[in-house]
UniProtKB/TrEMBL annotation:
Main localization, broad class: Golgi
Organism: Agrilus planipennis (Emerald ash borer)
Bilayer topology annotation: Single-pass type II membrane protein
Protein name stated in the entry: Heparan sulfate 2-O-sulfotransferase pipe
Domain of life: Eukaryota
Sorted UniProt keywords: Glycoprotein, Golgi apparatus, Membrane, Signal-anchor, Transferase, Transmembrane, Transmembrane helix
PANTHER family, per database record: HEPARAN SULFATE 2-O-SULFOTRANSFERASE (PTHR12129), HEPARAN SULFATE 2-O-SULFOTRANSFERASE PIPE (PTHR12129:SF20)
Cellular localization per UniProt: Golgi apparatus membrane
Amino acid sequence: MMKILQSTGEMTSLLPSQINNTRNAQQDIVFFNRVPKVGSQMFMELIKRLSIRNDFGFNQDRVQRVETIRMDTEDQARLAALVSIYTPPGVYIKHVCFTNFSEFGFPEPIYINIVRDPIERVISWYYYVRAPWYYVERKLAFPDIPLPDPKWLKKDFETCVLSGDRECKYIKGETREGIGDHRRQSMFFCGHADECTPFNTRGALERAKMAVERHYAVVGVLEDLNKTLTVFENYIPRFFEGASDVYWNEINKYHTINKNTFKPPVSEEVKDIVRRNFTMEIEFYEFCKQRLHKQYAALRLPEIP
């Protein structure tokens, strides 16, 4: 991305102010509608520590029995109202699709999020919901939840894909609701509309891209963590000053957050099978990567490996 910007001459004229939606925010509240399995637990811990260091409020949604990421119009309005009553400066964190506050008459917050390679993410989710500690946590929170079938728990991802198991079929245009359609991170940017529900479709992809471009201050990339932290620090300094220091010297050194040691390796052959059905998700991920690199390039800092 850096080489492309340099070759076109765009880098010399690019300014952070031109590609920073933080300036468009109408309230000093960061809204982190976090995508599952993209390192968001780690990032939430980072924000919690930064809230003490940088003196701002830290607020997150409570644990729910059934987490609904798509809401009807009334619930979207309630969410926008809830976030807007927190005393600024502050952060609110929730697993939920992009919610346009201005559509309900509330001031625009500072939208942020993180994305991850979509194939690695879907594999991570697959084993996350099968991890023993996941069900221990769920049972403690909701004792009446039944335990899953042991055969389901033991089913590995490679077998699931190669056998054509329903759980690991990724069919273009298919709609799933339930647990929030964990297959797609683009849904968290597309929004709550019915057009966002069909899997791997151009319409949902373009809506997600448009939301990122128009509303999000920063969308970080898990695989580009150094640049992600640097862009957050420079584009939203009120909240993220010192983020790199806190991450590398506190969180990364001493904490392992939500790391699943039960996840076995998956062959590239199986990953390639899945990639063929994730074309729009991959395009969205690459779009977010390019945007992050462009924001970093505008800072004119030394290149990070």
